[in-house]
Design goal:
single chain, about 325 residues, alpha/beta, D-Maltodextrin-Binding Protein, domain 2, 2 domains, 10 strands, globular
């Protein structure tokens, strides 16, 4: 090959590259470690799943994925941080169902819960267990509703805070049953389940991560699960829909990035999460936490977030819950 031909070939290559916007300026993704941010405490369900996703996603991408906890305000600090980050695929957030509950409960947020995010996929989905202490007179959900309807003594329920998904699920349950339940909120942690075990509050409506160990030990009695069908972790516990037709609540964890994430990065992340969620080790870990793997399209996740926000806003309006500033 002569020098003249080599030079013409090189020049042609330069021209072709120049015709593609950003061909020289866009480094391969990911070009540095990825931050996976979440807004809840170390060791909790969100943290366990975030670290599971980070480990396997990092192995698949050939780049470190580092979990960064920015706890506070029901996950809003983490969401705000990611919403304001550069949309380059190196900062992601593990959202929870609290993302939609906060959007419904707050008069204002430092971000738009839909428009400021590029949704990628959910990773897990799970119901809540409706439980009472073992000594409680209610043996079934129908029993509990009957007690609440007597009006002699209000049935109380607890949650990890006003406006939490657990709070709004309890309100939805009361509304579906046509009864008024007394909400007793706590500031997260183990206080809600301990208050039910101690007999200070009647009802716990919480994740299986929280409730299952106490159900298995016999200290809590599960009256129902909020999934439409029986849940694998509690196969003998009926769905609430058996007593309250149409009742269903499932919460979730999912991955998103800031708005404007390039479509090719969204598509790559979506595909990598799909591969990750087919991993038997991942599926076992998720199942042991009382959840199920759940891989959906970016558009389906966006639609779900919008639908959940609308649903919780309706519950808040119907139950006369005060919006928070």
């Amino acid at each position: 090959m002569n020098y003249s031909f080599k030079r013409r070939t090189f020049v042609a290559g330069l021209a072709a590259a120049a015709a593609v916007p950003g061909a020289w300026s866009q480094p391969a993704w990911p070009s540095r470690p990825i931050q996976l941010v979440h807004g809840f405490g170390a060791g909790g369900n969100a943290d366990v799943i975030a670290r599971l996703v980070a480990q396997h996603l990092g192995e698949q991408l050939g780049q470190s994925v580092v979990v960064d906890i920015k706890s506070g305000a029901g996950g809003m600090l983490a969401s705000s941080h990611v919403a304001k980050s550069a949309p380059d695929g190196h900062t992601l957030v593990l959202l929870t169902g609290a993302h939609t509950a906060s959007a419904a409960m707050r008069a204002s947020l430092p971000y738009d819960p839909v428009k400021d995010f590029s949704f990628i996929s959910t990773v897990t989905a799970f119901p809540f267990a409706v439980c009472v202490r073992a000594e409680h007179p209610a043996k079934t959900l129908a029993d509990l509703i009957k007690i609440a309807r007597t009006g002699s003594d209000k049935v109380s329920f607890t949650s990890v805070g006003v406006g939490s998904t657990q709070h709004l699920t309890g309100e939805l349950l009361g509304g579906a049953a046509g009864v008024q339940l007394l909400h007793v909120p706590y500031r997260g942690g183990g206080a809600p389940v301990q208050s039910v075990l101690a007999g200070e509050v009647d009802l716990l409506c919480d994740t299986l991560t929280v409730s299952l160990p106490h159900i298995q030990s016999g200290r809590l009695r599960a009256l129902a699960v909020t999934s439409a069908t029986p849940w694998p972790s509690l196969p003998n516990v009926p769905p609430a829909a058996v007593t309250l037709p149409g009742f269903e609540v499932k919460s979730w964890l999912g991955v998103a990035g800031p708005a404007g994430l390039p479509p090719e990065i969204v598509q790559r992340l979506h595909a990598e999460l799909g591969t990750l969620l087919q991993n038997p080790q991942v599926q076992r870990t998720v199942a042991n936490a009382g959840s199920a793997t759940a891989h959906i399209t970016p558009q389906a996740m966006r639609d779900m977030v919008q639908s959940d926000i609308a649903r919780w806003r309706d519950v808040i309006a119907r139950r006369g819950i005060q919006i928070q500033s």
